[in-house]
């Protein structure tokens, strides 16, 4: 029994670990360049969403992941508002192989951050006196797979030296 317990403890040290340490806003901005005129016009918005992620290794097994959501809303040809949030998180991640680590940082962590970023943007936009955005969920696994495929294709097409 003692051998089994020490074997299990040794495996526990090798088993993957993941924990969220902190979620925070790294940067936040809102601009309504055509106010107050924009509030006197018929509201027919068109929404443009850009999203980006980046990650940075911190001390030890800690990693910062930043999800940036940038929204530009136009009413006709005029820009009604521009809003951006950089939602960040610190994650403790250890014991993962390179491919699993890449997927965790590139898809799993942004998936955790997205609801916080979406709520922050909605709140910011409503405080600017505009209707809430109510952004649809994003499939970060699919976006990550597309990026891997794009990188693989660009590597295959690169001329050999």
TrEMBL record:
Keywords: Chaperone, Cytoplasm, Protein transport, Translocation, Transport. The keyword Zinc-finger does not apply. InterPro entries: SecB, SecB-like_sf. It is found in: Cytoplasm. It comes from the Bacteria. It holds the Pfam family SecB. SUPFAM superfamilies: SecB-like (SSF54611). One of the proteins required for the normal export of preproteins out of the cell cytoplasm. It is a molecular chaperone that binds to a subset of precursor proteins, maintaining them in a translocation-competent state. It also specifically binds to its receptor SecA. Belongs to the SecB family. Homotetramer, a dimer of dimers. One homotetramer interacts with 1 SecA dimer. This is Protein-export protein SecB. The gene is secB.
């Amino acid at each position: 029994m003692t051998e089994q317990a020490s074997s299990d403890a040794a495996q526990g040290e090798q088993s993957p670990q993941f924990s969220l340490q902190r979620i925070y806003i790294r940067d936040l901005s809102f601009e309504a360049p055509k106010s107050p005129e924009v509030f006197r016009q018929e509201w027919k918005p068109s929404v443009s969403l850009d999203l980006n992620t980046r990650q940075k290794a911190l001390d030890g097994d800690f990693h910062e992941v930043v999800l940036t959501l940038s929204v530009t809303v136009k009413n006709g040809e005029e820009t009604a508002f521009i809003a951006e949030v950089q939602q960040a998180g610190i994650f403790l991640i250890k014991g993962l192989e390179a491919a699993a680590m890449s997927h965790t940082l590139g898809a799993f962590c942004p998936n955790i951050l997205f609801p916080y970023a979406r709520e922050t943007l909605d709140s910011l936009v409503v405080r600017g006196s505009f209707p809430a955005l109510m952004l649809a969920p994003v499939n970060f696994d699919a976006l990550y797979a597309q990026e891997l495929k794009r990188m693989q294709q660009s590597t295959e097409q690169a001329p050999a030296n």
